[in-house]
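Two proteins follow. First one:
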Amino acid sequence: MTSTTPATADRATSDRIGRLQLAALIGTIAIAAVVGVWAYVLPREFYDHFPSFLGEWISQDGPYNEHLIRDHGAQYLALGAASVTALIWRSQVVYRVLGIAWATFGVLHFGYHVTHLDHMTPADGTAQVIVLAVAALLGLGIAIPPRRTGPTPSKGTHP
């Protein structure tokens, strides 16, 4: 017979990934793969055309700088690698640290762009704010642990 102690229950919860966390991790991996690879491998094309189907946001905000674009791609690839690692190395501590990293980047990135919309069309500005808000919220989604479920009493035991 296997008994569940508070320590083993805590460990089971700490290794378990919640649905929100999983969805947020997958979202960050997808964003990191697209933005990171595109910016790092094809910086000029990223500058000229990102995000393509929603508009061309980067080229509207200052002159081309290959170093800056590649660094931005590298940063996304680094965060994406950490998200992939979190899928493999499941721990609520890892999720919280990763969520804090993604949320910090996302909030600061959002903060810059939301205060620099005057050069964009209203449609581009609105789309950019929505996309960046979602990206920032993914970090919070990673950091929020799953609901804790209390231990269920075994048959034949009385409280």
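Second one, unrelated to the first:
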Amino acid sequence: MKILQRIFRFLLKSLLWFFGVTIGLVIVYKFVMVPITPLMLIRLVEQAKDPQKEMRLYKDWVSLKKITKHAPQAVVAAEDQKFLDHNGFDFEAMEKAWENNKKGKRLKGASTISQQTAKNVFLWPGRTLVRKGLEAYFTFLIELIWGKERIMEVYLNVIEMGEGIYGIEAAAQANFKKPAEKLSKSEAALIAAVLPNPRRWTPARPTPYIIGRKEWIMRQMNNLNPVGMGS
């Protein structure tokens, strides 16, 4: 019985520490910029192991007020058109992705911007059940504690947008030699167009596929209600 009691106490303390640390970190990041993410560290290790790659980590945090309104509109059009309506999860998209996967079709991601933000800020890449469970947990927390505007601000500042390039400001400077607040609608759509694989494609040298995707994103931007963020 004593052994069981010790195990129970240990598990209880571990759970309390887990909830305390994770909830505390989410609260801190509601007000403080995210200094670095697990993916950034992983990419740095990958670069260090590859002699053909240089060590690159370009990021420059900017507030949502310093980001053109076209940027949130473009990523919503490209990645998550129900962003302002859902509570972190697009169950309809998840069901479609599950059905397509069962039919053997090309798997299309169903992650919302909230889920992508939670994954990028707090977790590592992967598809294990533990990692997906933690992603759902952090998604719930940031939706509850941060709200949509902060989620978008963090997303636009930490998302991978090229080889060693993170965030809209670094992407704008690297590809168009201008700050994020000066990006045109077309430039913002180009940056959003490469997000499925930003290390393969670049907005500065778009392929015919990326140009076509950019045009599709711009049409979606015209059809969507204003996101109501940015300048």
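SUMMARY FIELD: The mean pLDDT is 91. The first strand starts at residue 58 and ends at 59.
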